[in-house]
Structure formats: structure tokens, C-alpha cells
User: What shape does this take?
Amino acid sequence: MSTTSNTTTPAAPQAPQYPEQVTGMYILARALRNVGIDTMYGLVGIPVTEVAYIAQEQGIRFISFRHEQQAGMAAATHGYLTKTPGVLLTVSSLGFMNGLTATANATVNCYPMIQISGSSVREPIDLDQGTYEGLDQLNVAKGLVKAAYRVNRPEDIPTAVARAYRAAVSGRPGGVYLDVTTPCLGAVMNREDAEKLLFKPVDPAPAMVPSAESVDRALQLLASAKRPAIVLGKGAAYAQIDDKIKKFVETTGIPYYPMSMAKGLLPDNHPLSALSCRSTIMEQADVVMLVGARLNWLLSRGHGKWNPQGQFIQLEIDPEEIDCNRPIAAPVVGDMESSIDAMMEKLPSYKLSMDPSWVPALQAETKTKNAKFLERLKVPTVPMTHWSALGAIKGIIESNPDVILVNEGANTLDDTRDSIDMSMPRHRIDCATWAIMGMGMGSAIGAAVASGKSVVAIEGDSAFGFSGMDFSTICRFNLPVTVCIFNNGGIYNGIGQNLSKDGDPAPTTLDVKARYDKLGEAFGAQTYYVTTPAEFATALTEAIASKKPALIDVQLAADSGKESGHIGYLNPAPLQKIIV
Ligand code: ADP
Ligand code: MG
Assistant: This one.
């Protein structure tokens, strides 16, 4: 008897006898279709190529990418816009890891998505024997996602898909990892037996009704406020109850401040919008009602400028979020629709005591600040600055309110957010909670595919670099996406101090003379190279109207933009203090 263990190359999988038999790959695609998935994003190879073929055959649209991270960003954006899980398909090891970046980002941002990855054979992975793309993916994913499951047997696939679906959309939405081993993908089953296992989860994102006491507590506090304010976050936008939120704001007459991706939930120029009065709200509001917004770093974690005597109401689906940075006087834990419904229903029993001068004061401040801001945008410099470029296109984007705006960069992010008013809900998608770079092309694709609408992506040149190759995906799928690259030649700007002793470029310096439009040409897009505000305006108007892939290289001055945009305080020390 041989004493050596069986470590030889495994036998090729058994071919199914069609049509009576099917494989795990088939069951996976069928199960996804059966729960209502109509689109997948991914990048195929061993061992998942056939999954994508079968998915297409099953009527699922498969959007194939050049990099998994971008496919994942697309799936996440799809999830955010549709309240159903965006699905990402990746290969084992590196493909899985590239995609996981996006799944982790989706989890942090509360976007529902499912990353499905093929994984290698378990036995040699578990004994660390070295196998093709061998990585213990489930355990790598676990700490970074909302839930992670592995499926080893084809008969478990329908259950695994249903559980992943539920985990992604229920409660606080997030990213889910589903690991499907190579043997499971290739395993053969009787078609009839497999079909019997398929099922659709009932009520996967159940309503979570807040307690009556919590609603009364919140309304009592709100009614007592002299200078109340509402902060709308992307959890409010995600809920797709735009009319109800508008009605609550307008019935109470309380001013609101929208977080970046909640811009447009109510139009930015609404009379109760306090978009331009962030500091005043923080310093002076005595009761702040957070609606699907977290008191995280984007709101100074409830400290800094915030009125130390101010009290908070928080409408939030995740009970663990409450009190995480500052005590919350009145938590309302429930799903947004149930919470707003309950608040609205009881509102007539409470008499608000808002100071009558509060809203007019904010409106006056808004007027003054907006007029001043517009002056800044009016200066048509050549070469262009971020401001003159944005001044040229502000009116064009605002007069196309149904176009979805995708936005990333440092100065390009901050200045675009501040300059361009949104008037429709969920029409601004940006790098959000982590303020990461490298979501642009993926999110633009996910937004265009999920909504069927046109997209304009305003990208810093550095930000574009992370996802630029997937501009080819925009072209391959002929999507109505216009990408504007604000090229100031660097991270922050193109005039980084050059301290290299070898004549190398500064760490922040990129390619101010690069002709990104030629990159667009390579893939057959309509392209433009613009150097003046007037040229930019003409190009963008034409590009949006074409409803075709377009790329505009927007030549800025290399010295436009400053380090870290608006968050310079996060830099450890000014450069001058490092240099001796
Ligand atoms: P923003 O950056 O706009 O403030 P965040 O992503 O930080 O938004 O916060 C969104 C919050 O909304 C999260 O705490 C999340 O749990 C919550 N949320 C998401 N979906 C819902 C929902 N359907 N109902 C209630 N709260 C939700
Ligand atoms: Mg730049």
C-alpha cells in the first residue's frame, strides 16, 4: 500500500450529459436570475468563465471590465441606485483581491453588492501546499464585508445566493462575499433536481418599524428646538422615499443640509436648503436631526465646530451606529420609510417652536455666500483653473438635471461639489465615505447601466489614472458617458516641489502635457481637447447631446489646486517643516 498522500493533479471535471445534467456554474447563473439579478459586472478567467457565458444565455447582462476593482465599483453603484444587490464576478486570488477593494468600499458606504468569486480547490489551500491561485479567500474577505459565505456543493448554491441577497439588502446594506470553489462550480447535478432547489427569498429587506416611544421622544425634542436643522445623508437618498422626505422638510419648515450624495434629494436651490451655511448650522443649531447620515469624519464626528450644547436626533437603520461619536438624545432606529412615516403621522400632535428669525437668517446668508461664490466662477481664465472650468459648465450640467454626475479627485471633487447644484435625487455619485480615488469609470458604468441615463464623470487627472483603462469598457458597451479629465498635471496640482537628487519627478507630479483625448481615440470615442472655458462648454454640450462615449481632456494650469483640496488638515505636517 502506498503511504504517499494523493497530491497529484486533480482529474478534469466530469462533463455533464446535456440536457439532463447541469453544472454548479449553471445552477449559480440560474439561481441569480431566479432571484431577479439582471446584470453582472466582472472579469472572467479560470474558473468562472462559463458562469458569465451561462449568465448571458440566461438573460443576465454581463458587463465585462478590464479591472475587477472597477467592475466592483460598478456593481456597488448599481446596488446604490436600485436597492438590489449589484453583482461582481471575479476569478480566484488576485482577481478576487482586486474586486474585494470595491466590496469593502461598498460595505463602508452601505451599498448592497455581492462579490462572487471562484476559488481554488480547498484541500491544498488548507494544507498550504501551493496550488493554482490558491488563497484562503473566505478568511481574507471576512473582516472587510458585511457577510461572507462559502459554497462547496452545487445543491447548496440556491441557498447561498438567497442568503447573500438577504445579507446585502437587509438592515444596513453592504457588501457580501460569496466564495464558490472550483469543484463546486464544475460538479454535475441532475437538471430536474437542481431546478427544484431554486427559490426566491420572501421579503429580503423587511421593513423595520421604529418604536412609538422613540418617535415621540424625537418629535418632542424637535418641537422644543429654537434653531433646528436636518442633515440628509445618502441613507436618506438610498431609501427612495424622496417625496416623503420633501414633505417632512416642507411641513416642518426646518432647514436642511445635504451631505454630498444627498445633494438633489431636495433641489439644492430649495428655499430651506442650508447647503451654503454648513458652519452656521454646526455652530448654532440646537437640535439636529440626522436622516440617514452618520456623524463620522465628514461631520467632524460631532465635535469641532458643532454646538457643544446641541442635541441630536438620529433616524438610522443600524442600532450600533447610535452614540458612536457623540451621545444621541433621540435615536429612531428603523428603516427610513417606516421612520419618516411614523414621524409624519405624529407630527400634527406637536407644536414646533422654531425661532422665526432662524430660517430668514440662513436664507440671507445663503444669498450672500452664493453671490460671492458665483463671482469666483465667472472669471474665464486661460489656462483654465478648476473654477473657470467649472464656471463654464455649471449651467450646462444644471440644465441637464437628468444626467448623473460622477465625481472624484481632490480639488476636482471639492470644487465640483461646491459649484454644481443638483436638482434630482441620486444623481451625484462620488468617492463618498472613505474619500477614495479610483471609483470613476466603474461608478460611471454602473450608473449608466443601472439607470439607462446619461452620465458625466468629472475626474481629476490623478483620480482618472486609477480606472482609466475601463474607459474602453464605456466604449465597448457604447454607453452614454462623457468623461471630463481636469488635467492640472498631478496629485493636487502639477507643481509639486521637486526634492529628488536623481532628477526624478516629484511624488505628486503627473503629466500636464498628456493628451488624454488620444486615449479616448484609441477606443473609438468622440474626443475633445479643450484649453478655454468656451471650448469646454461647446464640447460638453455636444458630448451630452450625442448620448455616446466621449472623453474631454480639460487642460488646466499646472498650478491650479492645492494639497489635499479641502482636507489639508489631514496632512501630517506642512512640507516646509519636513525639509531641513
Ligand atoms: P453620508 O455620507 O451621506 O452622511 P453615510 O453613508 O455616512 O451617509 O450614512 C448613511 C447612513 O444611513 C448609514 O448609517 C446607514 O446605516 C443608514 N441607512 C442606509 N440605508 C438606510 C435605510 N433604508 N433606512 C435607514 N437608514 C439607512
Ligand atoms: Mg490633478
